[in-house]
Amino acid sequence: MPPLTGPKSGDALFASVDRVNAELFTLTYGAMVRQLLTDLEEVEEVNKQLDQMYCFATIPPPTVDTLKYHRISVLVCGGRRGRLRVEGGNGEGVVLSGRGGCCQVEGDRGHGGGGSVLAGSEGCGVEAGDGVKAGGGVEAGERKVGYNIGTRLVDEFLAKSNVSRCVDFKETADVIAKLGFKMFLGVTATVTNWDAEGTSCSFVLEDNPLVDFVELPDICQGLQYCNVLSGVIRGALEMVSMKTEVTWVRDMLRGDDAYEMRVKLTKQVPEEYPYKDDD
Amino acid sequence: MVREVAESCVDGVVMEMVAAYCGRFYAAKPELAARRIDAIGFQVGHQLTERYTMERPRFSDHLEAIKFICKDFWSELFKKQIDNLKTNHRGTFVLQDNRFRWLTRVSIDPSVESLDATEKDSTTLGDSAAQTTSMLLYFPCGIIRGALTNLGISCSVTADMSNLPACSFVVRIKT
Questions:
Q1: For testing the chain B interface, which of A26, A32, A185 should be mutated: the one with the most B CBs within 10 Å?
Q2: Helices (DSSP H) in chain A: which residue ranges?
Q3: Name one GO cellular component term (chain B) (predicted).
């Protein structure tokens, strides 16, 4: 008999959460992806929105002294083109708007002014004027669909599942595959292909409710439809102090036989306490 | 047995979708964001109705279709029926849900403000929370509109959230 205070099994966990018809979930996600494709036009940009994204950069005209950052990421809306003027500190930066190419900013990297802009994806420009906002540094203010969802789901998971702290990444991966996926999606994943150091593994999903009824048309072949899942894993793990990179290896929508995500632990950040002990 | 997922997944996707369209893509143009959110809802409602009415005969009149939305359709989505249905018998229906599920779970994070929020004082925080909620409600309005359109009823749907957590959806049939 398992102890009463021990962690719940996957099935028990799933039974304990509020559940909804999976169709609502699948269709909502699908409709959102479809709308994103219409609005953003570039498949790569949609992939990024689902998983990770650049900060949205706007510059309130005419002065930009809020731009005290060295790096500004720029969200590009597909198909647009324009000029982005960067001022501040003791330098000015000017965007070279390439013809359908990447945009760049040249600036004086003096005392906090100007800065370089990370190029957007190929084929996009930068919307000028009120469409472009100044963002924070790359870390601050990043907003991503999958990542955001993950940061919230992990709280719910830890609250409901009663798992104790995982000893190492291997245990973490097992918990995600058996309990995490089960609790939210109702399916379990298997963990395979561990590398020698135990920092990199694959999650394999044979059954994925996200893709019920989904077929990718030819024009969307570059689309990572399930990118939200990789974002969720990344977001969730970052909340428990693990920075990871997640890439897709196999995708059933592209003809493979299963869904496989490769998760690589890049950094384990020790938890920081907000107060110093000797205060 | 109908396949299920955790409700947090749906909440997560819906909240993120609203945040993305209101906060990231059309921050300065809420009407465009609203239209997109409504369009996403429309597609969902359209597809769900198709699945849920596959085995049923056509509805004989508008009232029957609206009652389907209030009972069977709402139950599939929110595990409860619409609590109150009113009509003026002239093409307007008010569907009232006394505890609309998505509103009870919405968390509005006041720290998610745009960067140039320095001139805003704290009294506008409430407005922005209300604005996010009203944006969120475009989604179920779209769902209802999509569902009714698939049943052959052209209409407009708006939400009234003056009495939270109750929410009323006003359906105006176009003749």
A1: A32
A2: 10-16, 22-40, 43-51, 145-161, 169-175, 181-185, 227-239
A3: cis-Golgi network
Residue B10 carries which DSSP code? H
Structure confidence by residue, pLDDT tens digits, B80-134: 999 999 999 999 999 999 988 888 765 544 444 443 334 344 444 456 677 788 8
Q: Is A83 helix (H, G, I), strand (E, B) or coil?
A: coil
- CATH number, domain with residue A193: 3.30.1380.20
| Number of domains composing chain A | 1
Q: How far apart are CA A236 and CA B99, in angstroms?
A: 30
- Residue range B7-108+127-173 in CATH 3.30.1380.20: yes
Q: Are A51 and A231 in contact (CB under 8 A)?
A: yes
| A38 closest CA partner among A219, A181, A267, A242 | A219
Q: Say if the Cβ atoms of A17 and B19 lie within 8 Å.
A: no
Residue in B closest to A77 by C-alpha: B25
Tokens of B1: 């047995």
Domain that includes residue A43, residue range? 10-58+141-268
Does the ipTM surpass 0.90?
A: no
